[in-house]
Amino acid sequence: MDGFSHDRAAGVLLGQACGDALGVPYEFGPALPSDFIPQMVGGELGPFAPGEYSDDTSMAVCIAEVAATGEDLTSPDAIDQVARNFLTWAETAKDIGNQTRAVFSIARRSADAPGLSVPQASQEFALTHPRSAGNGALMRTAIVALSRVDDREATANAARTVAATTHADPLAVDSCALWTEAVRVAVTRGELDLLGGLDLIPDTRREQWRGWIDDATGADPRRFNPNGYTVTALQAAWAAITSTPVPELDPAAGSFPAQHFQYALMNAVRAGHDTDTVAAIAGGLLGARWGWSAIPSHWSRRVHGYGGHRARGLVTLGLLTVDRGKTDEHGWPTAPRMSSWDYRNSRDFSAVHPHDDGVILGTYATSGHGCDAVVSLCRMGAAEVPAAGVAPGDHVEIRLLDKDNETSNRNLDFVMADAGAAIKALRDEGKRVFVHCVAAEQRTPTVAIAYSRILGIGGAQAQADVKKALPGARGYGPLWDAAVKVSPR
Predict the structure, then answer these.
(1) Taking the CB of residue 489, how many other CB atoms lie within 10 A of it?
(2) Residues 306, 270 share a domain
């Protein structure tokens, strides 16, 4: 059995945001053909900018900003703060779901004595609207799974409580308990299991839910259209995940198991109708299964939205939530700068990439590199991303650890290829690119080799030339071996 992974925890909110932004341009459109390739081009109801996430992730951010403090999401104080966050967001929101808008309206109308809280308004709406199981709670529930990741009952209670804040219908609450448990299991065990949470919902509805889940497993997600109903939204997302084959590992062919993340998200969008919501729901679970390291840089560098969060901010919220508001011993991910011994002893050094003089290789301490884009292969301080003079989307953080054990870099072959592709994409945009880790001894040289391979340089030649440019390169180990397997493009 696989164990808990911070990489997978970090992938939950970022994975959701990527699905959301990918689905935005196609919202309320028809189902799309299997060969259609969705793009983060923005537009639709917002209108949203390219890469901008919608209400699905914005409301998840409102929850995460409370959960990231370590608060118990079932406590009245925490729920009150979540509700206040929702209302603050709604004041400037580009788009709000119809049911959520109605609940907020009820709460605002009665705000002057005696006044209804948002959860009370949700209960009133459910009592007067028998068909109120919209997908607006399910779309934001994935982050709740990280709040008590070691306690399934506490997690399910949090899911129910947060869901009922705006969607008190029993089916909406059930769907959130089921999906949140699936996300928790994916983060802690690396498995995809939606039926395993059936015991967390009332026994009178378990067989009904089992039938709905069985019907969706392995099905074409386009069957579940329209999908504004929480049941069909869950079915469409689950169908997209379970009907998408996990690719075989074949680096020479550019095939990696981690690509299941992006292929399944594209299938979620192809379901049509509420595309951003279905893809956001799927993205949270896929991010939990495959991790931050499986999210392609050409998506993560473009994602942004409410709260001013880009990929770095979404990852930070996920990590603080799963660690209950605590950072690691060095203050990461919120410390302004990195301060551990290896960072303090990083030397100011740079070298020109042997196969592209528009790429500079260096260390954490390198200064004066003169580049307008950065690819960081090590942890960076919160105040260091983006780097000075670099546009936010032109500073790419790649999750790559300088460790040889298999569990540290679970998606190593994909990450190596993706890091090389990130450099190539920035260069194709006319950027001069600085690539660095802490000491330029392992991660920087191996990614430099991966980039050389993409340029068509043979493996042995790439290794020799990079070793000459970076004499301190270690020259062995899993990262070194993975770099030469990257396929030319």
Answers:
(1) 12
(2) yes
